[in-house]
Amino acid sequence: MLEKLVHWARIRSPWILHFNASACNACDIEVIAALTPRFDVERFGILLKGSPRHADILVVTGSVNRQVKARLKRIYEQMPEPKFVMAVGTCACSGGVFQHCYNVYEGVDKVIPVDVYVPGCPPKPEAIIHGVVKLIEKYKRAVGIIK
Amino acid sequence: MTIRIPVGPQHPALKEPERFIFYVEGEQIVKVIPRIGFNHRGIEKAMEERTYLQDLYISERVCGICSNVHTACYVLLVERLMNMEIPERAKYIRMIVLELERLHSHLLWLGVAFHEIGFDTLFYLVWRDREIVMDLLELISGNRVNYATNTIGGVRRDISEETKHKILKGMKLLLERLKYYRRLSPEEQTIVKRTLGVGPLSTQDAKRLCAAGPTLRASNVKSDVRGDEPYLLYKEAEFQTMVSDLCDVLGRILVRIDECIEAVRIIEWCVKNMPDGPIRQKLPPIFKVPENQAYRRVEAPRGELVYYGVSDGSEKPYRIKIRTPTLANIPALCKMLENQHIADIPIVVASIDPCFSCTDRLVFIDIEKGKKWSCSMPYFKHLIKKKFGR
Ligand code: SF4
Predict the structure, then answer these.
(1) CB-based contacts of B115, cutoff 8 Å, min separation 6
(2) Which of A98, B55, B228, B380 has the fewest CB atoms within 10 Å, i.e. is most exposed?
(3) Sign of dihedral through CA atoms A45, A48, A51, A55?
(4) For a pocket test of ligand 1, which of A24, A68, A94 has the largest count of ligand atoms closer than 8 A to its C-beta?
(5) In testing the pocket of ligand 1, which one of A27, A94, A101 has its CB within 8 Å of the most ligand atoms?
(6) What is the pLDDT along chain B (390 residues), one digit of tens a residue?
(7) Which residues in chain A have Cβ-Cβ distances shorter than 8 Å to B145?
(8) Cα–Cα distances in Å, from A27 out to A91, A125, B63, B279?
(9) Which residues from A are below 8 Å from B132, CB to CB?
(10) Which residues contact B327 (CB under 8 A, 6 or more apart)?
(11) Which domains does chain A have, with CATH numbers?
């Protein structure tokens, strides 16, 4: 019973944490734009949180450089289970235009496990919202709510 | 007793990772040490390894908020290296997109500033108005951010009569809203109480520390590349430099709103005076640039942006050097923060419109007791409220 309630709450109101792992800012402003009146994901219960301890979903943008790698790992470790990671932007998926730069790891999945990839440079807010919906579906499937 | 507070490099709202170490005595900041480099991707090196046309797309991704001004500066640089003239119509289109970008960047900043002083209603209102600009940019270029309109030799997309009409309509609507914010900001007590006299930067200090952009102009220094060394058609458009003598955060808010109003005027001027003709001079995808060196500066939304380039006769540049305005503003920021209250850190840091902002995760270190703990920004704000009632 309680477990069901927790699942329900997680599906209805996932809280996200945004981390900029050396992105060019474009992806970040689109993540924020998704939260503001035009797109307003808050109506789906999605809230942006300031602390990793409060978050269910880590939204990572950017190509992850050497400086930021340890911080990204630490933030990921601070999040409570179950945690999900969304890689927003081509940079976060594969390195994008910064492939073969000496300082970048070319993708978030080289550092922490990723659940959903949202490509685009930058992806539109609609695409980001679509990514969150896909993630929720994935969670539902994992806990056996849908097949 | 001095306490050391490292701030960063992760922030809940937006922008790049960055880190500051604040030395505080009680509630007052005595010293600030910035630490940059969390966003280093090796762009200048990457540019040397790619052709001139590929570099265009890399320079666009130096910063996503002012992406167009980076490509504008880069194409102006390459055109100077090649001694190339571009068609008249392209200049107008470049200016329209440049100024639209300034509008979107300043409105974005205005929203963030209001958010930092806890005025979230205005934050959402401003961001709603910003969508007018975003729609126009999408209409012109096909993308909301990273428009890729500039190219070496001109622009990639034309503006149709219908689009012109929509731009004028959007600008009219926006002008009304901007005038409302201009009237509101110096009167509304919620704003004035949190910004008047906060983060002061005297005219002398601004000059001495080489501040740039709206930060400099809010300290009553009349300096703007568009006015001092006009590029494209700013001379013909009779560009006015906006200044404020308040020398504080409120001054920076007013300068930026004034600049937005000026940007609206320039866009209207461009749309009305645009001549017919070709929009670009075709170049092959891979071309060679004769041995040369050149230097270009343009006014980005955040201040003066400088590109310096050396070509060696091949299809790849020998060296490209970029200096961005935020870097120039960091020493001024450290000065502004001195003797300020901890509670004002977010708004003062935001006031230079940094391409970074990381007042989120703090680690407190009590030097005398050698204790160390960390907390998030919302909890930190809560603590401040509990302790100082503000
Ligand atoms: S994917 Fe594109 S827009 Fe997003 S951070 Fe990378 S370069 Fe910038």
Answers:
(1) B13, B123
(2) B228
(3) positive
(4) A24
(5) A27
(6) 777 777 766 654 345 566 777 788 877 888 877 777 777 778 888 888 888 888 888 888 888 888 888 999 999 999 888 888 889 899 999 999 999 999 999 998 888 888 888 888 888 888 888 888 999 998 988 888 888 888 888 888 888 889 999 999 999 999 999 999 999 888 888 888 888 888 888 888 888 888 888 888 888 888 888 888 888 888 888 888 888 888 888 888 999 999 999 999 999 999 999 889 888 888 888 888 889 889 898 988 888 888 999 988 888 889 888 888 887 888 888 888 888 887 787 788 777 777 642 222 233 333 333 333 333 444 444 544 544 443
(7) 26, 29-30, 122
(8) 9, 9, 10, 29
(9) none
(10) B36
(11) 13-143 (3.40.50.12280)
Chain A residues near residue B361 by CB distance under 8 angstroms: 51
Closest residue on chain A to B123 (Cα): A36
Q: Note if the bond before B275 is cis, omega within 30 degrees.
A: no
Q: What is the pTM of this model?
A: 0.85
Domains and CATH numbers, chain B: 3-36+361-388 (no CATH), 43-331+341-351 (1.10.645.10)
State how far the Cα of B165 lies from the Cα of B197, in Å rounded to an integer: 42
Name which of B299, B295, B172, B163 is nearest B230 in CA terms. Answer: B299
Alpha-carbon separation of residue B348 from A13, B27, B168, B181, B359 (angstroms): 33, 15, 35, 20, 11
Q: Which residue has its alpha carbon closest to ligand 1 atom 2?
A: A121
What is the ipTM, given to two decimal places? 0.84
Whether residue A71 contacts residue A38, with contact meaning beta carbons closer than 8 Å, is answered with: no
Contact yes or no for B42 and A97 at CB 8 A = no
The C-alpha atoms of residue B256 and residue B261 are separated, in whole angstroms, by: 9
Those residues with Cβ within 8 angstroms of residue B162's Cβ, 6 or more apart along the chain or in another chain: none
User: Which residue CA neighbors atom 6 of ligand 1 most closely?
Assistant: A91
- Classify residue B387 by burial, with Cβ atoms within 10 Å: 0-12, 13-18, 19+: exposed
The residues, ordered by sequence, that sit 6+ positions from B226 with a Cβ below 8 Å of its Cβ are B234, B239, B241, B298, B299
